[in-house]
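input
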Amino acid sequence: MNPDTTAVILVGYQNDYFAPDGILRGVVEEPDRVDTVLANSLAFINAMAATPMTIIATPIVLEPDYRALANSVGILDTIKSSGAFKAGTAGAEDIPELAAFGERITYVKGKVGFNAFSDTVLDRVLRERGTKDVLVAGMVTSLCIDSTGRAAYERGYRVTILSDCTSARTPAEQDFFCKNIFPLYGGVLDSRQAIGRLTADSA
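output
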């Protein structure tokens, strides 16, 4: 991997997942794992901020009537019934920790489901920057992370999931996806391994 042609997609780094009072923290068993994901993610961004690597955040923000989730099931129904990610609420806002990076992070808006590519300009932004490798981080492993990773693969990118910068609903689910699902279309690295590959290849 070369930082010049690599992008990390940050999925769902919003208060409803990561804030102590976030509506959806309870989706993850052992919510302290959410804090670990955040700490690892911020360490990764800090390590790569001075490189040419593209850093993109893809928040999900929904209209108050949740019209985009008219036929919602599963966690999307939970989002709708709990009022999560509602436009104009604190829960839908990006976590304040990202603000420290200023314009170093590019925000791609429009995400209203699992896949960060669907109905957004994410693919265009990546191609404009000559991206070849896509790293995926955020919430939730078995849903948005898997959907976004598959979509990136289908668009011709080399995909790597950052295992310690993602969390599933349970530890068993996280382990299953990292060992059995992600290797079907991409690679799996923890953030330290990814930093090592990126800095080594650019040296």
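quick obs: The longest helix spans residues 32-48.
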